[in-house]
Write a structure and sequence with these properties.
Order of helices and strands: HEEEHHHEHEHHEEEEHEEEHHHEEHEEEH
Bound molecules: pyridoxal-5'-phosphate
CATH topology of the largest domain: Aspartate Aminotransferase, domain 2
Mean pLDDT: 98
Strand order of the largest sheet: 4-12-11-10-7-5-6
Helix content: 25-40%
CATH class of the largest domain: Alpha Beta
Largest sheet: 7 strands, mixed
Number of helices: 13
């Protein structure tokens, strides 16, 4: 069997409509197909490859760690240089209350850890989330997913979860003394890039503090420069009690984290001890890559250029078929008239060599989240191809 046959015969499918491209190599913003075709990657493996593909410094950090050691012991027992160094670097980049990092393998695991930590720290069981939120696919994360269609077939899920309307200040009155935590994306990704309003986030912080509920920011998709600041919450004057990270964190290597104060985090270590454990969380290779990623972001000032690229994208995506463009940095939703037109333009763009995608809960919009390192010329070129695709579809 060739790889295509193996993929369809023996790899579990997540839908009956996979993109099914066979990619053999990747460099910068380009993916190279088996057929020799070249595609501009405007989605970065869903907001993962922020530095583009094949970054030399990341590859050499991974290689160097490979020579030292791979896995040694379950997370949290041995002192391992890449983990300790990364925890220190993250703490230095964050407000002083976010000083204790628990490393996971993925985003959904970071969310699981954050929810457990909130219940344990507060001694409460109720959780508040928002309509159209996406926090991952495991049972706890799915329980706080604000989309019925995605989760309904998997009930029963966690009890005590209540959903409020995103950006609705009135609804925040539902936070009370039995609320363990409120989990929120600072910019909702899967609902098609909807940023929290400053007033909403400020009131959310106020209500959580007033009632002793922990505020969790899920920055799994928005972290590490995607929105034009290292973390999206830096656009606001609001600091969470727990921060969840993953996706681009490891610059292509699998890693996530939930980060809180030492006081909050310490509750996982006693009564019982080992309240949250993982074998592979904070894998040395992933930590080495993530630490190098943070260094590159700082030294090469990549994030500073994001707002200019956001503006350029919006200018060059202007087309009569586009109804609205919503963006926060290089997390962009391009809304068309309806789902059918959107999907046709996405397919037509792919035919012409530009990879985009749709959003889980916004079928009318095209997802654009390119590597942050994309050049101005590459943006102009890719947008031209998308406009041509739109011409072909709505002609
Ligand atoms: C906001 C948000 N939270 C959580 C997750 C889940 O992360 P993972 O797929 O690494 O489990 C995602 C993934 O798309 C996400 O966008």
């Amino acid at each position: 069997m060739n790889n295509r046959e193996l993929f369809f015969s023996h790899q579990a499918q997540t839908s009956h409509f996979p993109i099914g491209l066979e990619i053999t190599s990747a460099e910068g913003v380009y993916l190279y197909g088996k057929d020799g075709r070249k595609y501009i990657d405007l989605i970065s493996g869903i907001a993962v490859s922020s530095l583009g593909h094949g970054n030399r410094r990341i590859a050499s950090a991974i290689r160097a760690q490979t020579e030292r050691h791979l896995h040694l012991m379950v997370y949290g027992e041995f002192i391992q240089e890449p983990q300790a160094r990364l925890a220190g670097m993250l703490s230095e980049s964050l407000p002083h209350t976010l000083s204790s990092c628990y490393f996971t393998n993925s985003g959904t695991e970071a969310v699981e850890g954050a929810l457990k930590l909130s219940k344990r720290f507060t001694g409460r069981e109720n959780i508040i989330s928002f309509n159209n939120a996406y926090h991952g696919s495991t049972q706890g994360a799915l329980s706080v997913c604000g989309n019925e269609e995605l989760k309904n077939a998997y009930r029963p899920l966690l009890p005590g979860v209540c959903f409020l309307r995103f950006n609705n200040i009135e609804d925040l009155k539902k936070i009370n003394g039995s609320t363990a935590c409120v989990i929120v994306e600072v910019v909702q990704g899967e609902s098609g890039v909807r940023a929290a309003s400053p007033e909403f986030l400020a009131e959310l912080r106020k209500q959580c503090t007033a009632h002793g509920a922990l505020l969790i920011f899920d920055e799994i998709q928005t972290g590490f420069g995607r929105t034009g600041n290292c973390f999206a919450f830096e656009h606001y004057d609001v600091i969470p009690d727990i921060l969840c990270l993953a996706k681009s964190m490891g610059a292509g290597m699998p890693i996530g984290a939930f980060i809180a104060s030492s006081k909050i985090m310490d509750t996982l270590a006693h009564h019982p001890p080992l309240g949250h454990i993982t074998t592979f969380g904070g894998h040395p290779l992933s930590c080495a890559a993530a630490a190098e990623h943070l260094s590159i972001l700082k030294e090469e000032k990549i994030i500073d250029l994001v707002p200019g690229k956001e503006k350029l994208l919006a200018e060059h995506l202007a087309h009569p078929a586009v109804k609205e463009i919503r963006s926060k940095g290089l997390l962009v939703a391009v809304e068309f008239e309806n789902e059918e037109i959107n999907k046709k333009i996405i397919s037509e763009s792919l035919e012409r060599g530009v990879l985009t995608d749709w959003f889980l809960f916004d079928q009318k919009s095209m997802r654009i989240a390119p590597p942050l390192t994309i050049s101005r010329e590459e943006i102009i070129n890719a947008c031209g191809i998308i406009r041509d695709a739109a011409d072909a579809v709505v002609r």
